């Protein structure tokens, strides 16, 4: 394991909510961590303003209880700022606590879904005290009938979907928008990176597994990645033959060049399918969210 660290079935309808250089290591088992000190945020930059959520909460229909162990499902059909959204997803809310709660937008990979991968991640993250919301993307197994349509991975339409999930946190209610994170895997990692570069002010910290940049059609665009200001933790297996490690190494180089707080954890022997639900990875993500103010 190598770590490179720098600047290291009832219906519950929600109708309204207030906006209240890589070091190489080796070894087996649980990977060891090698870290470099974190540096400060880029000098001479001024933070962009937090977006104002845009959502018609009367169109946000939640089925089930978000505080249940299995969370709840939701649908949304609305035209917002000229874009027609037909979306579905899952939402989990901590069963205890008074809020306002921090939150996370979770993004699934190719052939996945909000009810599959994203719900599995959400079940862990809600126990950390996060409201977790996820939607389905154009590369999902259940994409039929959803809008806006577009290319897979880090397409403009998938970024619109991801940010709409962010908007819909205002309908869930009792969410602290200054403490929202983003997390994704594979194509969902590509979406996450593109989302951060497109809406840099809206996320306090972020993480992904098996993502990164390239000039290909589905990956996070290197130019857009240059606008990322969010502290970003990257996780990648060195035996991944689906998304090569070089893509996260390239993203790391962009973050280094811009002085953005980040970590790259490289997992020796891990394939593409071993990393997304790894317990060590999740522990590191939780700590990252603590260090960067998403979690107390």
Architecture overview:
This protein is α/β, with parallel strands linked by helices and 296 residues long. The protein has a single domain (2-8, 60-291), classed as Rossmann fold (3-Layer(aba) Sandwich), CATH 3.40.50. Helix content is 24%, strand content 23%. It is built from six helices and ten strands. It has a ten-stranded mixed sheet, with helices on both faces. α5 links the parallel β9 (232-237) and β10 (262-267). α2 crosses α3. The longest helix is centred in the middle third of the chain and has 17 residues, at 156-172. The radius of gyration is 18 Å and the shape is globular. Residues 2-46 have low confidence and may be disordered.
- Radius of gyration (CA) equals 18 Å
Task: From the 3D structure, determine the CATH topology.
Answer: Rossmann fold
Approximate strand percentage: 15-25%
Number of helices, where a helix is a run of at least 4 consecutive DSSP H or I residues: 6
Strand ordering within the main sheet: 1-10-9-8-7-5-6-4-3-2
CATH superfamily descriptor: Alpha/Beta hydrolase fold, catalytic domain
pLDDT averaged residue by residue: 88
Q: Give the CA-CA distance, first to last residue.
A: 28 Å
Structural class: alpha/beta
Named CATH architecture:
3-Layer(aba) Sandwich
Helix-residue proportion: 10-25%
What's the domain count? 1
Order of helices and strands: EEEEEHEHEHEHEHEH
The largest pleated sheet is described as: 10 strands, mixed
Low-pLDDT regions: 2-46
Shape: globular
CATH hierarchy, class: Alpha Beta
Q: Count every beta strand, where a strand is a DSSP E run of 2 or more residues.
A: 10
